[in-house]
Design a protein that fits this description.
Helix content: 25-40%
Low-confidence stretches: 10-29, 305-316
Number of strands: 11
């Protein structure tokens, strides 16, 4: 076979292979023709329309890049300002309360004064926490109990007894101290009912002001919930002068008085609450925390930051 014949056979075989449809092998080993791929062709293109305009010709106009913060931001901004103002006010209150306690403590170290026969009620505020003493006879028939009052987890009452002084001296009110609830009746505490002349040593106190949560006294039922000095004085025919009997803070004496039914007097000390330091820390901490929150809210964009655009033409 010469070279020309070989070349013709190779050419014919190659042309036959190209003219045959492509084959693909199935799983069972059979050969089948491959379907020619079909191309989708549009009948017309949008660009063929002479009136067509694209987004490049008319770009969108930016309306806004996010929603502005609402009125809640104003409320959040008022919180740190208000908390800072309250903290500053508590600083002033702390200075006032510290000076007041120091003034009362200076009065405690002074020698006790004899209570004058007639006391001007308007001048009592200038002698608040002043140690005084008075002599007279306790009117147990006009005794009043203020309660309930809790002492070391036990329920009880404060015993208020008018002290009738001799001569032209006025009758005053004496807070003798605390008794247990089980000793409410005078017959159960006979040792605490003192007859004859006695000398009471205690602190001259200014009348209290009733708060909103304390119920009103019921003098007709002999039920008292807070020391209304004016009311008790009018009920017993006394001057509105209030003395709190004091005693040494001796634990054995306290147990002995409790067992005998003798009222337990208060200690000679200033018992004014001074919690303004905690209030200062609370308000300033709240102001700092809410300031940080406000900064984070202002710095962080709103959640719907997706840009909204407006089309200036209807696309076809």
């Amino acid at each position: 076979m010469n070279a020309s014949n070989i070349y013709l056979r190779q050419f014919s075989s190659s042309s036959y292979a190209t003219s045959r449809p492509s084959l693909r092998v199935l799983r069972k080993g059979r050969l089948c023709p491959r379907r020619p791929s079909q191309q989708k062709r549009f009948s017309h293109s949008p660009a063929d329309n002479p009136n067509f305009t694209s987004i490049v010709d008319h770009p969108p106009t930016l309306v806004k890049t996010g929603r502005k913060h609402g009125p809640g931001l104003i409320v959040l901004a008022l919180i740190p300002i208000t908390a800072f103002a309250l903290g500053t006010w508590q600083v002033q209150r702390l200075d006032w309360k510290t000076k007041l306690i120091a003034k009362f403590e200076d009065r405690l170290i002074c020698e006790p004064l004899p209570l004058p026969p007639q006391v001007n009620p308007d001048a009592i505020s200038g002698f608040d926490y002043r140690r005084v003493y008075a002599t007279g006879r306790l009117r147990h028939d006009q005794e009043m109990l203020i309660g309930p009052r809790i002492r070391e987890g036990e329920n009880g009452y404060l015993v208020i007894t008018p002290l009738e002084r001799e001569g032209n001296a006025s009758t005053i009110l004496v807070n003798r101290g605390w008794i247990s609830k089980r000793l409410k009746r005078q017959s159960d505490r006979k040792e605490g009912i003192i007859d004859g002349e006695v000398t009471i040593s205690g602190l001259l106190r200014e009348p209290w002001k009733k708060n909103l949560f304390t119920p009103d006294n019921r003098p007709d039922l002999r039920e008292f919930y807070f020391p209304d000095v004016q009311q008790m004085a009018a009920l017993t025919g006394s001057q509105p002068v209030w003395i709190e009997e004091t005693m040494e803070p001796d634990l054995l004496k306290v147990y002995d008085r409790d067992a005998k039914g003798i009222p337990i007097g208060r200690a000679t000390e200033v018992n004014l609450r001074n919690s303004h330091v905690q209030y200062i820390f609370t308000w300033y901490a709240l102001s700092l925390a809410t300031s940080v929150m406000l900064w984070m809210v202002v710095r962080k964009p709103p959640p719907d930051i997706a840009r909204r655009v407006r089309q200036n033409k209807e696309w076809q």
